From TrEMBL:
InterPro entries reported for this sequence: Sig_transdc_resp-reg_C-effctor, Tscrpt_reg_LuxR_C, WH-like_DNA-bd_sf
Domain HTH luxR-type: 294-359
PANTHER family in alphabetical order: DNA-BINDING TRANSCRIPTIONAL ACTIVATOR DEVR_DOSR
GO biological process, one term: regulation of DNA-templated transcription
Gene3D superfamilies attached to this UniProt entry: Winged helix-like DNA-binding domain superfamily/Winged helix DNA-binding domain
Protein name (Swiss-Prot/TrEMBL): DNA-binding CsgD family transcriptional regulator
Composition bias, Low complexity: 279-291
UniProt keyword tRNA-binding present: no
Keywords: DNA-binding, Transcription, Transcription regulation
Region annotation (Disordered) ranges: 277-296
Highest taxon listed in the record's lineage: Bacteria
Pfam families: GerE
Length: 364
């Protein structure tokens, strides 16, 4: 089913491919490494690159992890030993792993496949369910896929195979509170594949109502957000948890029972009890928020924090900042919270205003 659907939401990645294919030349090869979490569509992107290369008249060789595209070349191409062609032909290698390419003289580029936008998920559903429209309940259920096209396609296939999808007045409506067995099994497999630290973190998250701040999860585990950062990033990469603004959340409420199914019943009962004990509202624990100081103490920031603050001042998004400084968006988000706390700010708008005042003061 997946291969019969059009490639959706990967226009920027395909433009990167065609740009590099036009750039390569003899003795100027390129490797495009495609990264991304499970079900993000890495293998599908490789197939699309192979098809586009053939459409453009290039010679193409394919393996499971690699596509070798050679322009202006009529002879055979060995996908397992592409380095021999680099000196004489324009070679572009698209791969999901750098293994076996260490000795290929080429300029390396990297892309990471992120989640599809809600609009792209709707487009994918429209193609997967032709002649119907996705109802609000189905759109909500696709959150379990965390924006990953492969997971969306498998979810729809499972709903149809198990009779969990109904067509009501032209609208596709899933039965409430049900996940296909194949989706539950895949989620359980991702949970089992986590490192012990990340698995413990996801288990602890079942004790918190979604969404929840990372600091609260850290307090529950007796750690700090910085100390939990690798486990948080691994949990996010698994798709079990997602980032909801500055908070974390299970990708869907139906993911929580999948995690709980792998835990002892007594532990699940205790965690549910903790989740039901709602804390007092923040306003009852703290006084009114102090007014923001107009003179922020910039010396309190580390070099990395100062760099990120200045990039915020250039109107870059967290994703753009992450690409610029070589960090993950989740780490950039953590640094931003540290910046806000150290400077006594509450938002990006206040941070930009404070940066402008700082720049104006420096020019006096």
């Amino acid at each position: 089913m997946e291969t019969s659907l059009p490639l959706i939401g990967r226009d920027a990645e395909m433009r990167c491919f065609t740009t590099l294919l036009g750039w390569v030349a003899p003795d100027r090869a390129a490797v495009l490494l495609v990264d991304g979490p499970p079900d993000s569509g890495r293998a599908r992107l490789l197939r699309e690159c192979a098809a586009e290369g053939r459409r453009l008249g290039a010679a193409v060789a394919v393996t499971r992890e690699r596509v070798v595209v050679v322009r202006d070349h009529a002879g055979p191409v060995d996908a397992y030993a592409p380095g021999g062609l680099v000196a004489s032909a324009p070679v572009l290698i698209v791969a999901t792993s750098a293994a076996g390419l260490e000795n290929v003289p080429a300029e390396v580029h990297r892309i990471r496949l992120g989640p599809l936008s809600p609009a792209d998920v709707r487009r994918l559903l429209a193609h997967a369910l032709p002649g119907t429209r996705p109802g609000p309940r189905l759109l909500d259920l696709t959150r379990v896929a965390a924006g990953r096209p492969g997971a969306v396609v498998r979810l729809i296939a499972g709903l149809r195979e198990e009779g969990l999808l109904r067509i009501v007045d032209g609208s596709a409506v899933p039965l409430p509170g049900r996940l296909p067995d194949r989706t539950r099994a895949r989620l359980a497999g991702r949970f089992a594949a986590l490192s012990p630290a990340a698995r413990h973190l996801v288990q602890a998250a079942t004790a918190l109502p979604s969404p929840f701040p990372p600091a609260r999860l850290a307090a529950l585990l007796g750690s700090t957000v910085l100390g939990l950062l690798p486990a948080i990033e691994e949990a996010l990469d698994s798709g079990l948890l997602t980032a909801a603004g500055e908070a974390l959340s299970f990708s869907h409420d139906l993911v929580r029972p999948v995690v709980e199914a792998a835990m002892p019943c007594a532990v699940v009962a205790a965690l549910r009890s903790e989740r039901g004990a709602r804390p007092r509202p923040a306003a009852a624990r703290r006084g009114p928020r102090p007014a923001v100081s107009r003179e922020a103490d910039w010396s309190a920031l580390s070099g990395r924090e100062m760099e990120i603050a200045e990039l915020v001042g250039q109107a870059l998004t967290n994703r753009q900042i992450a690409d610029r400084v070589g960090l993950s968006p989740h780490t950039v988000n953590y640094h931003l919270r540290q910046i806000f706390q150290k400077l006594g700010l509450a938002s990006r708008v206040e941070l930009v205003s404070s940066l402008r005042r700082r720049e104006a003061a420096a020019m006096r």
